[in-house]
Design brief:
By secondary structure, the chain is of the alpha+beta class. The protein has two domains: 3-227 and 346-419, FAD/NAD(P)-binding domain (3-Layer(bba) Sandwich), CATH 3.50.50; 231-340, Succinate dehydrogenase/fumarate reductase flavoprotein, catalytic domain (Flavocytochrome C3, Chain A, domain 1), CATH 3.90.700. It is built from 16 helices and 25 strands. A six-stranded antiparallel sheet has the order 15-14-19-18-16-17. Strands 8-2-1-12-21 form a five-stranded parallel sheet. The protein is globular. The two termini are 44 Å apart.
Length: 534
């Protein structure tokens, strides 16, 4: 029997390599090759308290910053494992030959948002691409040894869950429509649900969220769906948002808006401690407030003109090339107009500290899993969380599975996927944009009860349409769950800010929001989180 890994980004490759390293056979299934994965787009860096910059950093400080950044909604045991293992993960990447920026053989670290010490290892502003290259090569080594079998350009049709136990996975070749069934445990590494917000996210358009919606419809438990991270510095390009990496502000970039005709560097005035490296939810809210004032313009700009030529050449050259290519602006001398865009989903599949889901034999890691980040993710923790989470999920799958490691079972061909099935999986563009617009009206950077209730009503009305496909109805159900989570969390915390409940309420809401479908109805509840003292 093999263990099935769905997704070939950082979490999927980490899980597959961890399994293969222990002699377990792996089926690595993905719609695209690793070079088209969301993880390739990650720019700024990966956090680890290596203390190579001599600032006295330590994993305990990384732990505290992560807990505070997530506003105390993260599982402290899971975060402790993440931050304690971070130095080893980055050191292993360097040993593999991953081309991170180094000096005298040690990783150079940069500042990133929500953290006072230099903790973020990087490769210019193409860190995801560089790390993905290293992990892809590692997976290829195990593939050559027969331990990993790849099924790229294959799409999952169904995760086989019976009596709350995962039995296997069905998937088909998108070129031939041949369907296969592979029994055994499944590790989901399917990324965020960008497709629910077409053209409004920095993530790949291939991460549609439809498999997540399928699983939710079948009873899988999700959590913290109200927490959506808006990255403050993005620009619109065809089909998506282009990320202007936080690394630019880590190297001295400054945000401003014209106030009474004069540049106002508002983050430096309002937050003199962290300034332009305040947490992303804070900056996005302040940008939204700034453009709504009567004495300011309607555009926030990113000023990178004070960055030195050496920094541009050694750390940000690829970012400069992107801005010139997509915007016809040179950030060395031109100010960049930026707006917040959806960048990361802190919520997703509810997992324990070992990445087990509510279905036995089913695991989840990376952005699809609600783990580590709580109410808001620190920049530099996503790649770390994906690599570490993938390895943890693999370890749990090995411990839980009853199988013979040396017996290999190839997926069985079961037939051809028919037109009726493909038709039910289709999401029409007009419906997708309508769902997106309704959700954005209730789940923006700043929220209130009236807008969320109106959005819920519109989705409920849309759900009654008889011309919808099955996939469209499931997207609506996932969207309704997101709105219900936000509506029932009557406080402001991290990325969830409500004008009608502007204060944080630890007594009632320092809890995980849990969403499930029971007998066709969406049920939202809250579960306690282990106390942590900082």
């Amino acid at each position: 029997m093999a263990i099935n890994v769905i997704g070939a980004g950082l979490a999927g490759l980490s899980a597959a390599s961890t399994l293969a390293e222990t002699g377990v056979f792996v089926n690595l299934i993905s719609l695209k090759s690793p070079y088209r994965a969301q993880s390739v787009l990650a720019e700024g860096g990966i956090n680890a308290a290596l203390d190579t910059m001599g600032e006295g950093d330590a994993p305990a400080e990384h732990f505290a910053d992560t807990i505070r950044g997530g506003v105390f909604l993260s599982d402290p045991d899971a975060v402790r494992g993440l931050t304690d293992n971070a130095p080893h993960i980055v050191e292993k990447l360097l040993e593999m030959g991953t081309a991170l920026n180094t000096k005298d053989g040690k990783a150079v670290l940069r500042n990133f948002g929500g953290q006072k010490k230099k903790r973020t290892a990087f490769s210019k502003s193409s860190t995801g691409k560089i790390i993905m290259t290293g992990l892809t090569d590692l997976a290829r080594k195990y593939e050559a040894g027969g331990l990993i079998k790849t099924f790229f350009h294959h799409q999952v049709t169904h995760i086989d869950i019976q009596d709350k136990k995962c039995k296997g996975v069905r998937f088909f070749d998108v070129y031939t429509n041949k369907e296969y069934y592979s029994p055994g445990p499944v590790i989901l590494a399917i990324g965020g649900y960008n497709g629910i917000f077409p053209e409004m996210t920095t993530g790949t358009v291939y991460n549609t969220g439809d498999l997540l919606a399928d699983l939710f419809d079948e009873g899988l438990v999700l959590s913290n769906l109200e927490f959506i991270q808006y990255h403050p510095t993005t620009v619109g390009i065809p089909g998506k948002r282009l990320l202007i990496s936080e690394a630019a502000r880590g190297e001295g970039g400054r945000l401003f808006i014209y106030k009474d005709g004069t540049p106002w560097y508002f983050m430096e005035e309002l937050y003199p401690d962290l300034k332009n490296l305040s947490p992303r939810d804070v900056i996005s809210r302040e940008m939204t407030k700034a453009v709504s004032r009567d004495d300011t313009g309607d555009t926030v700009y990113l000023d990178l003109t004070g960055i030195s030529p050496d920094t541009w050449k050694g750390k940000l050259s690829d970012l400069r090339e992107e801005v010139i290519y997509y915007m016809d602006l040179d950030p060395v001398k031109d100010h960049i107009p930026v707006t917040p865009g959806i960048h990361f989903f802190m919520g997703g599949i509810y997992v324990d500290k070992d990445h087990r889901t509510s279905a036995e034999g089913l695991y989840a890691a990376g952005e699809c899993a609600s783990q580590y980040h709580g109410a808001n993710r620190l920049g530099g923790n996503s790649m770390l969380g994906a690599i570490y989470g993938g390895s943890v999920a693999a370890g749990a799958a090995i411990r839980d599975a009853v199988m013979e490691k040396d017996i290999k079972t190839d997926p069985e061909e079961t037939g051809i996927v028919g037109k009726e099935f493909l038709s039910e999986r289709k999401v029409n563009a007009d419906t997708a944009f309508l769902i997106r617009d309704i959700l954005l009206s209730g789940l923006g950077i700043i929220r209130n009860k009236e807008d969320m209730e109106e959005a819920l009503g519109r989705l409920s009305e849309l759900f009654q349409r008889e011309d919808l496909t099955g996939a469209e109805k499931k997207r609506i159900q996932l969207g309704r769950a997101m709105l219900l989570c936000a509506l029932l969390r009557k406080e402001s915390r991290g990325a969830h800010f409500r004008t009608d409940h502007p204060e944080r309420n630890d007594e009632d809401f320092r809890k995980t929001t849990v969403a499930r479908i029971t007998d066709g109805s969406i049920d939202i509840s809250f579960e306690d989180i282990k106390e942590v003292m900082l």
